[in-house]
Amino acid sequence: MLTFSATSSVAATASVAAKKQTLNTQGAEFFNPKLPPRTLSSSKRFEGSSNLVDLRYHMGPVLSSSPINIYLIWYGRWSESQKLLIKDFITSISPSAAASSPSPSVSEWWKTVSLYTDQTGANVSRTLVVAKEHSDTRYSHGYHLTRLSVQQVIATAVKAAPFPVDHRNGIYLILTAHDVTVQDFCRAVCGFHYFTFPSMVGYTLPYAWIGNSGKQCPEVCAYPFAVPGYMGGGGPGALLPPNGDVGLDGMISVIAHELAELSTNPLVNAWYAGEDPTAPTEIGDLCEGLYGTGGGGGYIGQVMRDVKGRTFNVNGNKGRKFLVQWIWSPALKACAGPNSMD
């Protein structure tokens, strides 16, 4: 779950021992901008060094069956270009996209997620596909959703039969438009994942919700493409988003965060740190705010900037570029990403 923290989770960068990557630097420059922190909360601690993190496996399943089927629910009104951008990111995860995506790529970023296994030794699948889509343009459950009514949105999609009941391979991904408010959105979360209750949906299904913060709280949930309002005009400017849409580009980083955690902890009984499964610290939480080597103390880490000044750290298919946070590596016991320069 992507929440806010009073401390950045980037202490691990000093201990990352990843092999040097062959980075695609053509037409791009490297830089490590310092930005103010997002709005703060004490809801979690994000510790980033191996001697402080106790990430453990709790014997539950991971999404190891291939492919992982993404069932997309577009709640509210979305343009086709917005849908295409998000789907291009999701399809960039699979190995088939690696051939057309120069390094560092989204597919290489997911390799860290695929290192996680279940008790049989089966790894998280490396292949994700958009299996089906459902558009709820009538806002069937209103313009404000609670955590429970988010599940009702899934129930509507399943009962209307656009979606199958996919216990083994499925992720039900609810994306709310910019005019939809959601319980705790902007105040405590930018996205979350859990599993549906049989009493609500009829089945137990892993799902994630992410909201478009472009008009509600970009300085919180579209960071680092927007900076907190308290900075006024006196601080460093926000970074330019790689696809020109602060809300969508920020949203994609949250989608990446939630997909990584949902794949490694779908029923909240697999991979997490801490003793409380109702508030687990997961593999994305441990690296919140870290996008490249040298991050920490307000620095996001070494990332790239193209000739138009747009910031990114991974390449996708169709020439897309994205900025996504690093993920905790079980092999390195540190945050890692394909754009590592260590």
UniProtKB/TrEMBL annotation:
InterPro entries, per database record: EXORDIUM-like
Membrane spanning residue stretches: none
Pfam annotation, one family: Phi_1
UniProt KW keywords: Apoplast, Secreted, Signal
Highest taxon above the source species: Eukaryota
Protein's cellular compartments: Secreted, Extracellular space, Apoplast
Similarity-based family: Belongs to the EXORDIUM family.
Protein name, UniProt field: Protein EXORDIUM-like 5
